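Subject: design request, 206 residues
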């Protein structure tokens, strides 16, 4: 009887460990394809205008947009966006992605008869953020600043920035070693006429 109980406990432990391992691997693979990206609008513009949503900046729909309705509560930035992971899980390893351009699209439309304007001074800071295992590490990820630039749309539809030589990435065999989230911190410093507002439709990375 005692031996049967021991065998049952032993088999249960093996089953539990297998479940934990497989579930963890499933989470890692799922995270590597579509992590819970952080997006923060420090201006809280959505409180004044429900049409203004930071999530619209990465929804691949240029008819939806973010409108700056008020100043930011953050001392340095208006927006924070985690855009994409630097690696993709394929063939039993995490392979680095090749990046070429960051493209910013403006929205030259009118909302409630109030002119929306392209940014004429948009400060963008690009960071690599650690893709830490949030199930194991009780800390904030480390951000490493890669570059900064300023954009003036001059009433154009888009601005394209070459990022092909920014990131020195290597393949990885274990998540999250040497794997990052490309993260943007954005400050709109545009100067417009009274009642005019900065409007951005989309940010693409490819």
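Subject: RE: design request

Done. Sequence follows.
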């Amino acid at each position: 009887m005692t031996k049967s109980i021991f065998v049952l406990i032993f088999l249960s432990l093996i089953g539990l460990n297998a479940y934990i391992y497989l579930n963890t691997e499933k989470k890692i693979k799922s995270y590597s394809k579509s992590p819970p990206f952080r997006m923060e609008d420090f201006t809280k513009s959505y409180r004044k205008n429900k049409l203004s949503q930071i999530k619209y900046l990465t929804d691949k729909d240029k008819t939806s947009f973010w409108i700056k309705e008020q100043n930011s509560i953050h001392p340095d930035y208006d927006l924070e966006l985690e855009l994409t992971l630097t690696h993709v899980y394929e063939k039993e390893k995490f392979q680095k992605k090749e990046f070429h351009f960051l493209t910013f699209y403006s929205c030259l439309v009118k909302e409630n008869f109030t002119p929306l304007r392209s940014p004429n001074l948009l400060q963008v800071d690009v960071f690599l953020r650690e893709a830490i295992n949030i199930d194991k590490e009780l800390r904030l990820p480390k951000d490493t600043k890669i570059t900064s630039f300023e954009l003036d749309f001059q009433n154009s539809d888009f601005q394209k920035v070459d990022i092909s030589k920014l990131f020195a990435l290597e393949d990885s065999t274990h998540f999250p070693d040497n794997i990052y989230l490309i993260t943007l911190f954005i400050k709109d410093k545009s100067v417009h006429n009274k009642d005019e507002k900065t409007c951005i439709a989309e940010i693409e990375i490819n």
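The chain is about 15% helix and 35% strand.
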